[in-house]
Design brief:
about 650 residues, alpha/beta, Rossmann fold, Arc Repressor Mutant, subunit A, 5 domains, seven-stranded parallel β-sheet, six-stranded parallel β-sheet
Length: about 650
């Protein structure tokens, strides 16, 4: 190999050394071993497959479940000068054809692909022609029916061995897997026990808090005022994100909201404003956060409990990625338990209801039984529900189960720009311009702006083209449609709706089958996860970190000392009267000016030194005290 893994790391990422287990994982892959890597959220999983793929000749296929995540990864690699592309639901056959050609004949290093795409004939034929150097399986817990995001299509990944060189290793990576999931994933991908590399999920700098409170808005304000830093607030509905962001803004915070229903350009803008600290607090659904590595998030607040410990661990873990003291607070009240249980029932509609939705979809798209395999349809959920009198949540969960069963797939709602590609060579294009001078200006402008327009479908901005040519957008659109009619260009108009794809021909609803693994087993697993979250929220005896880690089969750790349970237990060592007296004196002394530890202790002579130190430590752990750059203690309550 011409470059070492450290050369690659330095050249593209600017780091001199790897973190924690990264080098062990990379070495295992380069030795040709199928490998399972378990790293906590923010542990640098992507580098574990990106570095070895760059060291070796050929292309790395990355299987990923989320379009937004794929797009972020591709964009980040391209910014580093690494050629990468993605294929996902919603792309038409021509776009996919071009992308796969680039992977076979071009010098691309990464192809990101959804698991469902692996089963298509066009993919199987082309991947056999690629020089593949690694198969990376992101979010690999999706392979296991015991995982919190099980997707049956993930279980087909192992079939790639029948198409590509069997010596090409698999690297499965995940941040959330317990013992049962690890065993399942390793068996399905033929990973030996010695090549399972697990970094502890413990986050020593992260204090977990469960705050049992009725007035969540008021407590949220207290938390954010106290931390006074960058944060994420998770809410379970789109409406709640908007209401909460408006509430925070009216109380002086630079806050904004984010959810999956926003147009892609708006999502990108809001996300970038937060990353660059123009927005301090982002209030979001769980659509936010995947693939974002912002190190200085000091607090993550959940307004309601997520439905699984995996989801909570991943979302809470977005705080404190820089290793500095941070907090994950979950606000809980008794009615949240009822809401979780109700949500669990809604997540699994009755089979007869799922069949009704499937049949209505076929009628909505005017698709005959026996046809439609591979067909894409823009899907407007609101319009569909209005036409067929369904509740949106019923349709959402029915479609989810139909997707798991392999009948259909629905892409995320992503913004697809107008896309253009020249379909003729330079000579043919010149001859066309001579005969049709009315299109010459547009053709020349496209050629100047987009060097690779003969090879790829290129996103084009019709407003910019219209301004440059002093024409209306409608005139530009009409010209592109004419060029398409004459076979000069491939022109795909912009779209903002999710795309529903039929994986197999439409069936009569009586022929639909729902395997136990995707319905009954999943319902059981989801129920177990829900019960764990209720226990996590309602327990006040077990260290939060210890309880959460136990779910991931880590049981060898002492109490964290910083969660709400540990802090309460620490405080119990002193009577409330003594604690309050010492606390008052500390606050009075620090109100005058910051003090170093020893002088502060000596300034409270009427109490035992060990008691004063215990109260100081408690207040440090609960973020009521902090050290400044001069190593002096100061109170976070100052100025409130």
């Amino acid at each position: 190999m011409s470059q070492t893994i450290h050369d690659i790391l330095k050249q593209y990422w600017g780091y001199d050394s790897f973190r924690d287990s990264q080098e062990d994982i990379i070495s295992s892959v380069l030795d040709g071993n199928n490998t399972l890597a378990l790293l906590p959220t923010g542990g640098g999983k992507s580098i574990c497959y990106q570095v070895p793929a760059l060291v070796n000749e050929g292309i790395c296929i990355v299987v990923s479940p989320l379009i937004a995540l794929m797009k972020d990864q591709v964009e980040n690699l391209n910014k580093r000068g690494i050629k990468a592309l993605a294929i996902f639901s919603g792309m038409n056959k021509r776009e996919i054809d071009i992308a796969l050609d680039n992977c076979v004949y071009g010098d691309y290093k990464f192809l990101y692909v959804s698991p469902e795409r692996l089963q298509t004939e066009i993919f199987k034929v082309r991947v056999a022609k690629m020089k593949v150097n690694l198969i990376a399986v992101d979010e690999s817990h999706c392979i296991s029916q015991w995982g919190h995001d099980f997707r049956p299509a993930y279980q087909k990944i192992k079939e790639l061995r029948e198409i590509i060189d069997k010596s090409i290793p698999f690297l499965a990576v995940t941040a959330t897997a317990n013992k049962r999931v690890i065993l399942d994933v390793s068996e399905q991908l033929s990973i030996n026990k010695e090549h399972i590399i697990k970094q502890s999920f413990v986050r020593e700098n992260l204090g977990y808090l469960v705050l049992k409170i009725e007035n969540k808005e008021e407590r949220l304000l207290q938390i954010l005022k106290k931390t006074n830093s960058c944060g994420i607030v998770y809410a379970n509905t789109r409406r709640k994100t908007m209401e909460t962001a408006n509430f925070l803004t009216s109380n002086g915070f630079r806050a904004d909201y984010y959810h999956g229903g926003l147009q892609q350009d708006e999502r990108d803008r809001k996300q970038q404003n937060w990353i660059e600290n123009r927005t301090q607090i982002i209030v979001a659904t769980n659509a936010f956060g995947m693939g974002i590595d912002k190190p200085d998030v000091r607090v993550v607040v959940h307004l309601e409990p997520p439905a699984s410990p995996e989801a909570y661990f991943q979302e809470a873990g977005r705080a404190g990625r820089d290793g500095k003291k941070s907090f994950a607070a979950l606000l809980y009240k008794p009615s949240d338990k009822l809401n979780l249980e109700r949500f669990h029932e809604l997540e699994f509609p009755e089979i007869k209801e799922i069949k009704k939705v499937y049949n209505a979809l076929g009628n909505y798209f005017r698709l005959a039984i026996g046809g439609g395999e591979g067909a894409n349809y823009e899907f407007n959920l609101g319009d569909f529900c209005n036409q067929f009198n369904f509740e949106p949540i019923q349709v959402h969960h029915s479609i989810s189960i139909l997707s798991l069963a392999g009948y259909i797939n629905v892409s995320d709602a992503i913004s697809r720009p107008n896309r253009v590609k020249f379909e003729v060579n330079n000579n043919e294009l010149y001859n066309y311009q001579v005969k049709h001078p009315e299109h010459e200006g547009l053709i020349q402008l496209l050629l100047r702006k987009h060097e690779t327009i003969f090879d790829n479908l290129i996103g084009v901005n019709l407003n910019q083209l219209a301004d440059s040519l002093k024409k209306s957008v409608k005139e530009i659109e009409n010209s592109l449609q004419k060029l398409k009619t004459f076979g000069i260009v491939e022109f795909l108009p912009a779209s903002h709706e999710p795309v529903l794809t039929y994986i197999v021909d439409r069936l009569h609803e009586d022929r639909l089958k729902f395997p136990k693994s995707i319905y009954l087993d999943r319902k059981k697993v989801k129920g177990e996860q829900l019960q764990f979250m209720i226990r996590y929220c309602e327990s006040d005896k077990i260290c939060r970190s210890k309880l959460l880690l136990s779910y991931f089969d880590e049981t060898e750790f002492e109490n964290c000392g910083t969660c709400d349970v540990c802090l309460t237990n620490k405080r119990k060592n002193l009577t409330n009267t003594i604690f309050s007296k010492i606390e008052t004196e500390i606050e009075l002394n620090l109100k005058k000016s910051p003090m170093k530890l020893k002088p502060l202790v000596l300034s409270i002579p009427n109490h035992k030194e060990k008691d004063v130190l215990e109260v100081i430590q408690w207040k440090l752990d609960s973020n009521e005290l902090n050290y400044n750059k001069n190593h002096e203690l100061f109170s976070n309550k100052k100025g409130e």
